[in-house]
Amino acid sequence: MAEELIRIQSLCKSFGNKEVLKNVSLVINRGEIFALIGPSGMGKTTLLRILNFLETPSDGKLVFNGIHRCHEIDTRRRMSMLFQTPAIFNTSVFSNVAYGLEVRGADKNTIKEKVMNALNIVGLPGKELQKARTLSGGEAQRMAFARAIVYDPDILLLDEPTANLDPANVAKIEEIIEQIRSERGTTIVIATHNIYQVKRIADRVGILLNGELIEVNRKDGIFTAPKDARSAAFIRGEMIY
Ligand SMILES: Nc1ncnc2c1ncn2[C@@H]1O[C@H](COP(=O)(O)OP(=O)(O)OP(=O)(O)O)[C@@H](O)[C@H]1O
Ligand SMILES: [Mg+2]
């Protein structure tokens, strides 16, 4: 039986007079990989940023683990977001990955052990002393992934984690996503353009179109029997607006 972890209730977000999210309601269950898909500019990043408390909704509410968002700081400490364009600090790979542990006050030995473990998971062992800004694009993305998982978040928000990567790096990142979920039971929300990625790794899918969540379905449902004609068109690769 699915256990509710995040409840998004009648969420609205406007920037000026532009409505970016319109009355979005959605439940995300513990331990699932939930994919948010939809054309560019339709509100995927905005929704992830709201889940990460980086934006305040204009209306509606968020409930984490049955608790209303007043416990924001505690909730934020247990989640992590990999940004569409990750910021890379001009320091070593080790320092970049250690950041989330340092702000959480972890001791030196724990930091070392967890950073090394995270670098192993993302396939970057031995890179810890390299300047992060000298990594290749694919390596930098995997380092950002290590930074996101290093403190064992309960909730991992991934914004286009494989955009602009070659197929080998895409496969590696997808493998890591599945490994993190199966080993740690992490709940993962992933925004992606990539229908094939959804097919490979998601459990359920939500399609955002013009700020509306037009369909939420199990993956097999969305590919074989979409409930909405616009979802069906999007899945077929047609332009929808
Ligand atoms: N801080 C902001 N101020 C004004 N407009 C914003 C702001 N943040 C986002 N928007 C607008 O909100 C809309 C949705 O943006 P968002 O980044 O959520 O889309 P997206 O679905 O992630 O797109 P993409 O697939 O291209 O990443 C866009 O029109 C964007 O320009
Ligand atoms: Mg985006």
TrEMBL record:
It is an enzyme of class 3 (hydrolase). One of its GO terms (molecular function) is ATP hydrolysis activity. PROSITE patterns: ABC_TRANSPORTER_1, ABC_TRANSPORTER_2. One of its GO terms (cellular component) is membrane. Its EC number is 3.6.3.27. InterPro entries: AAA+_ATPase (IPR003593), ABC_transporter-like_ATP-bd (IPR003439), ABC_transporter-like_CS (IPR017871), P-loop_NTPase (IPR027417), PstB-like (IPR005670). GO terms for biological process: phosphate ion transmembrane transport. Residues 6-235 form the ABC transporter domain. It holds the Pfam family ABC_tran. The keyword Iron-sulfur does not apply. Keywords: ATP-binding, Hydrolase, Nucleotide-binding, Transport. PANTHER family: ABC TRANSPORTER I FAMILY MEMBER 17. This is Phosphate import ATP-binding protein PstB 2. The lineage of its organism: Archaea, Methanobacteriati, Methanobacteriota, Stenosarchaea group, Methanomicrobia. The gene is pstB.
